[in-house]
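Incident review: delayed structure delivery

Summary: a single-chain prediction request sat in the queue longer than the usual turnaround. Root cause was a stuck worker, restarted by the on-call engineer. No data loss occurred. The affected request and its eventual output are reproduced below so the record is complete for anyone auditing the incident later.

Affected input:
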Amino acid sequence: MEKSKHCAYWIKRKLFLVLAALMIGMSNGIYNEEKNVTNNHVQTEQQDKKD
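Output delivered after worker restart:
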């Protein structure tokens, strides 16, 4: 009984760790994409002002 409780706790802990890592990775991906879109928008506006 004690061993199965320990095993369930370990699985739960590892699952939480994997989910947290996925959420952080997705967050970083969204941030980088948003940063690129904003940066391209600013560069386009600067080019328009030069023309």
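Verification: Residues 16 and 22 are 10 Å apart (CA to CA).
Action items: add queue-age alerting; document worker restart procedure.
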